[in-house]
Amino acid sequence: MTTDEHIVFVVDDDARLREALGELLAAHGIDSRTFASAGDYMTAKKPDVPACLILDVELPDINGLDFQRQIVEGNHPPIVFITGHGDIPSSVRAIKEGAVDFLTKPFDEAHLMAAINVAIGRDREVRSRRAELNALQERYRDLTPREREVLPLVVSGLLNKQAAAQLGISEVTLQIHRRNVMKKMEAASLADLVRIAGQLEIPIAHSRRSKDGSA
Fold this sequence. Notes:
CATH class of the largest domain: Alpha Beta
Strand order of the largest sheet: 2-1-3-4-5
Number of helices: 9
Keywords: DNA-binding, Phosphoprotein, Transcription, Transcription regulation
Strand content: 5-15%
Helix content: 40-55%
Pfam families: GerE, Response_reg
Order of helices and strands: EHEHEHEHEHHHHH
GO molecular function: DNA binding
Distance between the termini: 53 Å
CATH superfamily of the largest domain: Response regulator
Radius of gyration: 25 Å
CATH architecture of the largest domain: 3-Layer(aba) Sandwich
Structural class: alpha/beta
Domain Response regulatory: 7-120
Mean pLDDT: 91
Largest sheet: 5 strands, parallel
Low-confidence stretches: 209-215
Number of domains: 2
Domain HTH luxR-type: 136-201
């Protein structure tokens, strides 16, 4: 897979429209795959590349808007709706659920291509963030149990001696664990480690305080 690879999926029960959209996309150098129903789309094996889903509202097996709601939590590409019977409530619902655009047939070619480009760009960004998060999670799994205890203390802003006291270890040992955490998480700085902890949703530790309020 190269960074330039992408595809458009077309789900519409009108065979002539599927053919026309396939030819249009090919003319713009965009690969496409067409389906007559949502069920066909769901069961088909699809390439793992940035994509856009052109989805008709009125499908033979399910309403497109209902289908959008079903797949919104999955790893499906951004949707561009097309319909022969558009209305404001439907378009508002589609956009609120995350659709890139809602086009009424016959639609303007330039408008459609612009929406497709936005959708593919959005999907590429989502995939990039997902890949980065997966890599961070893999690094986090490589930390030892003690290093996982050290990480939230370090990003909380505690001094080494404070973090060491909370864990009941020496400051020197804490510093060793801290260096290991920075190295394994590939953090260039403390600020970078704080950003990583945020992406992993690691709770920030708080210093324990004595009854008189001192640290």
